[in-house]
Amino acid sequence: MSLKQLIENCKINDTKAQGELYKLFSSKLFAICLKYSRNYAEAEDNLQDAFLTIFDKIEQYKSKGSFEGWIKRITVNTVLQRYRNEKVFDIINENTAENVELDVEEDTVSIDYLLKIIQELPDRYRLVFNLYVLDGYSHKDIAEMLEINIGTSKSNLARARLILKQTIEDYKTTQRSQTL
After folding, report:
1. Could you give the angle at which helices 67-86 and 40-57 cross, rounded to 10 degrees?
2. Using only C-alpha atoms, what is the Rg of the chain?
3. Which Pfam family is one of those matched by this entry (predicted)?
4. Cα–Cα distance between 114 and 37 in angstroms, integer?
5. CATH number of the domain at 111-179, please?
6. Would you kindly state where each structural domain of the chain is located, as residue ranges?
7. Fold identical between 3-86 and 111-179?
8. Which residues of the chain fall below pLDDT 70?
9. Distance of alpha carbon 31 from alpha carbon 41, whole angstroms
């Protein structure tokens, strides 16, 4: 069955088609959920919520633009809505230097370790870091998506980079002392 037919069948609440669509896109969307979630279990919950929203709103998809892009946006927005509801951005008034450089030498830090420490960032820092660095959104877009101001987005990004930089430096120091 073609993707177009699968989408049309989902629009009439065909559960078999919904299952097929889930199988087709769940791993890609789970990767997005994992990137924005605090842990694996929360990512699973976010994936389920995202698919509920996708199936609820699939009638709104008018075959204009990429379907995959459309469901990815819904997934990101579903996860971000959880954090907006938890008000993780309420108590922020930080002044942090904007241009913290984060140099990662590939031979020193594994990608798994890097993803782990990104996931351990406080919510407001992790979300802004992922949106800006990994997904390429502008501070203006991030501010709109998270319902914060642009300055808060910039401050949270700088703070995330600072935390990551310190964590990586501590890790390198530990690694060096273990090899001596």
Report:
1. 120
2. 19
3. Sigma70_r4_2
4. 15
5. 1.10.10.10
6. 3-86, 111-179
7. no
8. 87-108
9. 13
